[in-house]
Amino acid sequence: MTGNSDSGDGGALPEPKLNSDVEARIRFFVQGYYDFMKDAADIYVRKCQLVLEAERDLPAEAVQQFFDRIRLPRNSGTYRKVRKIAEAGDRLLRVADKLPDSWTTLYQLAKMEPHVFDELVQDDVLHPDITAADLLAAKEQRSEKVAKEQFIVTIDGSELSRGEQIQMYREVKEAVDGYGATISDIPLAELEDEEEAQ
Is 0.85 topped by the overall pTM? Predict the structure, then answer.
């Protein structure tokens, strides 16, 4: 049995107090772990770039030999992913310290539109532990936010009489309220004062 049942912590043992030497060693190993993750992502992106460079640089008759020797069929999904990562390589390598060491997640990053990728970097969403699922959720969240921000309707009622403007305002406000949206950039106080006067 681990922990005591009445501690309120679900039976988990408390973390032992560590002396500063052990704590320093833990930090060393954690830092090394993340350094290797960064290096692994960097190396994988560069490996993909090397494949693309070989494909472009070698004579046509030698390209297939190259792919045979590295055991990468050009008609495979893996090849398409390698190619996509290579094409986005410069963009990915600019933030190598934030890249995960998962080729699936690197592929998802490579597929992104550059402006979406840049926004994820600026918003500090990207980090070495991010998974493809986390990335998809962040991308969907961003898409929903952008979609909400982009639905703006402009109505020009300046050619209407004041009475027609007030009537249109009432009808539009009723529709807007029904959708839970808002009306902005309209002289609300002035129109509301006129409505109350009528």
Answer: no
